Amino acid sequence: MPLLDNDMETHQLAGGHFGFSATRIDTLGASEYTLVTIAADTSGSISGFEREIEKCLKSVVEACKYDKRADNLMLRLTKFHSRIEEVHGFKPLADCKLPAYDNCIQAQGSTVLYDAATSAIEATIAYGRSLSAADFAVNAIVFVLTDGENNGSILTAGEVKRALERAVKDEAVESIVSVLVGINVGDPRLSKYLSDLQRDAGFTQYVELKDAGPKTLAKLASFTSKSISAQSQALGTGGPSQALTI
Length: 246
What we know:
The protein has five helices and eight strands, in the order βββαββαβαβαβα. The protein has a six-stranded mixed β-sheet, with helices on both faces. The chain has a two-stranded antiparallel sheet with strand order 1-2. β6, α3 (157-169) and β7 form a beta-alpha-beta unit. It has a single domain, classed as von Willebrand factor, type A domain (Rossmann fold, 3-Layer(aba) Sandwich). The protein is of the alpha/beta class.
């Protein structure tokens, strides 16, 4: 886990497998927030397009900074391979500096997809619950980006499903949108695997990209930032935003 500044604190998730960091609630300036979590696959198979993924992430952050609700966005970024690493915890978008994403993606290891998805959802809901208890209005959106099947996770696909079900049932946030993104999906078998995972686990949406070229990842960045904006604008309506197309 990265070094924390004075405005950040660590949290442990139930079960003891995973934790996360987040901005101290007493330092926040707005009255409502959309929590954004991006979990990016950095297993060995992404070798060759690490910098394109970084550029995509930077484009998302930069586009969101121009959103009219930028002051109401908080972002957390994790990467996963043989384990999960937190690039940074939940912090206001204004504190997400683009140079901090330089060289944050390195290809290595296997793909703990189920662990990464479950922990991303659970951390988002845990922090959302704390914000709600402090009288903040909160909703959330989670993106899980992967180019392969799970291998090496502690948890199962069933745990992803249960995490999403709990996210809806316990009403810690007003609404949550979950997006599974398949990157560089050229194999029909992988396409079916990810489509089945979206359906079986209960992700709100599955988005499939046939390659990982600059133009394709630029489209992903645009889709992601627009989806974040739509979910932020939905806060206060009592429901989630409508799914967008890439």
